[in-house]
Amino acid sequence: MDERLDLEVAVVGGGFGGLGMGVALKKAGIDSFVILEQGGDVGGVWRENTYPGCSCDIPSHLYSFSFAPYRSARTRYPGQEQILSYLRGVARDYGLREHLRVHTAVAEATYRENIARWELTTDAGQRILADILVFAVGQLHRPHIPDIPGRDGFAGAAFHSASWDHGQDLRGRDVAVIGTGSSAGQLLPEIAAVARKVTVYQRTPHWVLPKPSAEFGRISRWVLRTPGAHRLYRQALYYGADITLAPIMHRGWSARPAQWMARTHLRRRISDPRLRAALTPDYPIGSKRIVFDSRYYAALGRENVELVTDPIARISDNGIETGDGTHRHADVIVWATGFRAPEFLAPMSVRGRGGRLLHEEWSAGAEAFLGLAVPGYPSAFLIAGPNSFNPAGSNPGMKERQIAYIMECLRWRAEVEAAAIEVSGDAMRQYRQWLERAIAKTVWPSTGASWYKHHSGRVTNPWPASARTFARMLRRSPAEAFVAVPAKVPAATPLPIHYHKSTRATTTPTAF
Ligand code: N01
Questions:
Q1: Which of 78, 254, 439, 449 has the fewest Cβ atoms nearer than 10 Å?
Q2: Distances in Å between the alpha carbon of 40 and those of 37, 101, 140, 159?
Q3: From the CB of 181, is ligand 1 less than 6 Å away?
Q4: How far, in Å, from the CA of 35 to the mean position of ligand 1?
Q5: What is the CATH number of domain 4-142+341-485?
Q6: What's the mean pLDDT in 454-473?
Q7: CA distances from 244 to 83, 114, 132 (A)
Q8: Which H/E stretch holds residue 406?
Q9: Where are the domains of the chain?
Q10: Whole-structure pTM value
Q11: What is the spatial order of strands in the sheet that 174-178 belongs to?
Q12: What is the mean pLDDT of the chain?
């Protein structure tokens, strides 16, 4: 395709992060941008994940943008369709559709030093030039399907939880579910209700906390529609999660009560002591993402559901064989085996200054200043980049903080009239020291593998402190951490982006 686009901003990804970025650009009066989306619509993971029972385990009033509140939610926790229609509504209401390019997968992004701009190439060969590049591809979108012997010889249907095959009627069939994380927890009750038999293959039990599943009554809904009450409720959820859940990750005050609650939930739901023992984790709560679910254990207790804890040895053409030599029949295999979350930005090839290749620099695990910028990659930003997943609260909120910071970076760039800006090596070093100290205080370094960690053992995905700390660090001026990067050859045209001058103080760098 011989088409070229010349823009101020290119945003990659049309989920929460990309749409939030689009709204912020619009509000700043910037219209010269595209949102490049590899799928057929906006929505990100909420478009991709359509498995039965898919919903959010964070309350809807918190799991939304602050500028686009859910005002008429019937249920405390939104379902997949509800979130997808919310995101479509945001795209429509904020005029983002005209900026959206669907079925457009970015293959390469290269910083052109002579003009201080990014050149993007799509899978279809389209070229895009932009002053600013924002990756908003999230962390949980590349399915992980383990390479178990015999996998490709299975004769039945096999699909990942995030690529559900709705053409498969599971009624009366034998279904194998591999994995026991949040996705498995949500889909198991639905498929166990229709399948002849479901065999759940568990490698490691997860800690499960019940969630209060409330339908809001008419009066609550009416009250929550008023902006003041809505704001108060959202704030209560935000502070509540941050004060009670975030300390779990550091073995803080709430870890023991949370573990006690999880054990009580397990005891109440599972009466068989052997099954209960098999479901009891032997690692501290918070080491993996906690499963918030009230239906999972009840589904495991059904007569047509079997939990298998012997490791899988191989997959045959019609079932799964475990290490003890037992073969169990399966018509369908559901891979609820999670995502290749530590492989940030893969499979895109991203080249910064001097031709450096990002995935080579990240070969021992990704890192980015505040999860959003990397030295050597001028004017390129990430939303939900390394170590910015909040395991104890709402991630749209984390993304909004990063978007606000990126907008401050853009303003500062215009203010100092820089061709490009880049986080300094010093700022990155100080941040890395702070991050390593913060991670060392969490349960993650000393516990086993999970999607929070790169295979090198480095903790690359979760944020190791409270959401309030994240907010505080992102309130600082970019002038403290970023430096101007000139074009090698002066740009032929004046800088295209004009902003109001930032009101923020320009100060010298301070330690984190
Ligand atoms: O994936 P997971 P998920 N053999 O990585 C097992 C978000 N989410 O899709 O623990 C056998 O949690 C693996 O075993 P182990 C949420 O942040 C949010 O469930 O590694 N088993 C594990 O049990 C969540 O954390 C919502 O030993 C293998 C499972 O597969 C994230 O998505 C809803 C295996 C993977 O669990 C991912 O959740 C759903 C192998 N070779 C998801 N490899 C909300 O409600 C892996 N496993 C917001």
A1: 449
A2: 7, 9, 18, 20
A3: yes
A4: 29
A5: 3.50.50.60
A6: 98
A7: 25, 50, 38
A8: helix 395-415
A9: 4-142+341-485, 151-335
A10: 0.94
A11: 157-160, 332-335, 174-178, 197-201, 305-308
A12: 94
